[in-house]
Known about the structure:
Layout: E1 9-14, H1 19-30, E2 34-39, H2 42-54, E3 59-63, H3 69-82, E4 84-90, H4 105-127, E5 135-139, H5 152-172, E6 178-184, H6 190-203, H7 207-215, H8 226-236, E7 248-251
Parallel strand pairs: 1-2, 1-4, 2-3, 4-5, 5-6, 6-7
Helix pairs in contact: 1-8, 3-4, 4-5, 6-7
Amino acid sequence: MKNGxxxxxxxxxxxxxxxxxxxxxxxLARDGFAVALVDINEDALDDVKREIENLGAxxxxxxxxxxxxxxxxQVIARAAEWGQLTVLVNNAGRVSITPFLEITEQEWDAIMxxxxxxxxxxxxFAARHMQAGARVVNLSSISGRSGRSDQAHYAAAKCAVIxxxxxAALSFASQGITVNAVCPGVVDTPMTNSIHEKRAHALGITxxxxxxxxxxxxxxxxxxxxxxxxxxxxxLCSPDAAYITGQSLNVCGGMEMN
Length: 258
């Protein structure tokens, strides 16, 4: 057995190079996990790895194109070799703002590939390496709770992630592996900024005005922080969440209440 493998608790976080993924990776590092960081941006991975090591934790940077099954298999296998694969956080994803009638087949396939297909196969591959007590956490979205006129494909994929979470929870319950999802709202990330740049252009307003209109719909009255999401993921990976599985938890300041 490789040195440290028997005691090293490994958490894989996909899309760990920035935004929510980075916040989750750093939080799990503070929780005592060795974190396998997965992203297509190698420079960003190296920066997050250094940040995790500065926290006193171990990090492993794994560059991969997760739209390809071979890439998914390779990172799962490498992380499982590093230690005991205990947590998988399926965070990697992309968003596109496009009116319903303008969505192309290529754009549909790109959204479905990373936001849904990758989640399924990463979970399938990881579960083969997991033991009782392991956790899978999928990042869905409040967009998966209701329709979206300018992101029908993204909303459909995120809705499907909720269903997939339930199916995986049923599939792996007998092995003692829990599977849950988190549905963030309007989070202060580069992705959110990109969304409101495109919406602002369509509406003839500034990105700041577009974002302000959205924040005005949040009952708690503020933009969501990446740490708000990371804290919930941390809970779902903790002993306190051992009896929770198949659930999709809205973390959105009250924008969705279902």
